Amino acid sequence: MKWVFALAVITALAMLWSLWGRDWLKSRGLASGFFAWLEPVEIALWKNSKTIFKARFLMVLGFLSTILTQAGAIDITPLMPFVPDAWEPTLRVIWNMLPIIIVGVGWVDEQLRKETTKPLEQVALPEVKPTAVVVAEIKAEQAKAELSAVIDEAKAEGKI
């Protein structure tokens, strides 16, 4: 049963990272070197999509629970005295089907993600702007400042 708790903790940490931790850490400007290294991995493995990350994590979790169940590391026998005798066969079937159900839910989540919301091509773009874009933004800001200065000067002279 230790494995079940370990998988639950790992799952909780992965979901917290995906939902809040990553965005919070990026908003603070911390660990920019870490994110520069991590972003290409995220794009390659789950196309920088939180939904695909969750779906693929579920599939891996289902696969691991299958392996651990077959190895005997996950066993519900200690829980069976608390289950009425009439429900025992049903519970055993559900328990044995649980890994494939988890994998199936993950697969369905990924398929739904591919069919809805923003296109993956848009999500899979790096968040770091290319140098050309940064240079263009700087030039646009300079032009905006110059235009603002000209307008202010024209207002001071009474031309506007």
Please describe what this structure looks like.
- The protein has 160 residues and is mainly α.
- It folds into two domains: 2-128, no CATH class; 129-160.
- It has helices at 2-27, 32-46, 50-71, 88-115, 120-123, 131-157.
Structural class: mainly alpha
Radius of gyration: 26 Å
How many helices? The count is 6
Q: How many distinct beta strands?
A: 0
Q: Sum up the overall morphology in one term.
A: elongated
Whole-number mean pLDDT: 85
Q: In this structure, how is the largest beta sheet organized?
A: none
The share of residues in extended strands comes to under 5%
Considering the chains and any ligands shown, give keywords for the structure.
160 residues, mainly alpha, 6 helices, elongated
SSE blueprint and pairings:
Elements lengths: L1 H26 L4 H15 L3 H22 L16 H28 L4 H4 L7 H27 L3
What does this entry show, briefly?
The protein is mainly alpha-helical and 160 residues long. It has helices spanning 2-27, 32-46, 50-71, 88-115, 120-123, 131-157.
